């Protein structure tokens, strides 16, 4: 798989104009203008850059990781370094919007270098992209115009600091808008939780917990056709608990039923629930219930 270490080499590959800054590029359509068109297709590639793009008018499918996304309605998309990208000539790249690309080293020595890693949406798949209202669109465009002004003008000692500040503002707004999107899509949140519970139930009833162990978050997310971070963030917003916490709650709930069978030892219960190490099961049980599995069994006997 081809990997691009510099922003210039990445843009050259895309057949886009070379950047005004070696670590930053800004493309912005204005009025009746359109964004520059990149190459029509590409096998899987990776690079060392962050990308923030808002595409208003585009048709076709873009593969981002393992997910295809229909861009017809437009969306704000965030791509992190080393994310796998590929697309084919079914994509029509005549579009409005903006695209900001910056090398990860552009952030070195700034507070944003660490903060940007905390924004979960850089790990989302494109079918989980942020859809903006007209008002939100204008807010984002205003920030991008400020970035573009600094980018296009003769850059001085203050330019980078100003651009970083504007990027921080843009990402904070994106975080706010994602919160709004989660709230407006409660039916999706509820559906994901129901799908998760059904997946765990099927995994348990089929004997796969004992045979294959506790499913990883990656396995669960793949089955539900969402990214790991989006699944966890969505559940967190709706229920206050992450995917891992929901899995643990399911396992503990199952454990309570199995522990009531006197012919099974605590270790056997742990193995039946997919735990490789019984002591870990006992610690998790005590953490969630306040008592050990043995104490829980004894308490039930007393009742």
Automatic annotation (TrEMBL):
This protein's record includes keyword Transcription: yes
PROSITE patterns, sorted: HTH_ARAC_FAMILY_2
Pfam families the UniProt entry points to: HTH_18
Keyword DNA-binding: yes
Residue span, HTH araC/xylS-type domain: 194-299
Keyword set, alphabetical order: DNA-binding, Transcription, Transcription regulation
Cross-referenced Gene3D superfamilies: Homeodomain-like (1.10.10.60)
SMART domains tied to this protein: HTH_ARAC (SM00342)
Protein name per Swiss-Prot or TrEMBL: Helix-turn-helix transcriptional regulator
Organism: Gillisia lutea
């Amino acid at each position: 798989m081809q990997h691009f270490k510099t922003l210039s080499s990445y843009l050259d590959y895309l057949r886009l104009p070379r950047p005004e800054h070696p670590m930053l590029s800004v493309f912005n359509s204005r009025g009746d203008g359109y964004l520059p068109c990149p190459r029509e297709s590409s096998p899987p590639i990776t690079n060392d850059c962050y990308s923030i793009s808002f595409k208003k008018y585009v048709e076709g499918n873009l593969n981002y990781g393992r997910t295809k996304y229909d861009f017809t309605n437009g969306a704000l998309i965030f791509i992190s370094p080393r994310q796998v990208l590929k697309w084919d000539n079914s994509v029509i790249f005549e579009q409005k919007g903006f695209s900001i690309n910056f090398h990860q080293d552009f952030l070195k020595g700034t507070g944003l270098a660490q903060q940007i890693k905390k924004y979960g949406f850089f790990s989302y798949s494109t079918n989980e992209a942020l859809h903006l209202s007209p008002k939100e669109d204008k807010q984002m465009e205003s920030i991008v115009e400020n970035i573009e002004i600094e980018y296009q003008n003769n850059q001085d000692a203050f330019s980078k600091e100003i651009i970083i500040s504007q990027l921080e503002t843009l990402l904070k707004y994106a975080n706010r808008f994602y919160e709004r999107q989660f709230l407006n899509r409660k039916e999706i949140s509820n559906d994901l939780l129901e799908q998760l519970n059904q997946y765990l139930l099927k995994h348990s009833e089929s004997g796969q917990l004992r045979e294959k162990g506790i499913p990883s978050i990656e396995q669960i997310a793949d089955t539900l056709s969402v990214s790991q971070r989006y699944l966890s963030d969505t559940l967190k917003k709706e229920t206050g608990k992450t995917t891992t916490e929901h899995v643990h709650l399911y396992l503990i709930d199952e454990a309570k039923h199995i522990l009531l069978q006197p012919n099974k030892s605590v270790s056997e219960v742990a193995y039946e629930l997919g735990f490789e190490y019984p002591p870990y099961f006992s610690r998790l049980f005590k953490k969630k219930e306040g008592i050990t599995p043995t104490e829980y069994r004894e308490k039930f006997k007393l009742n």
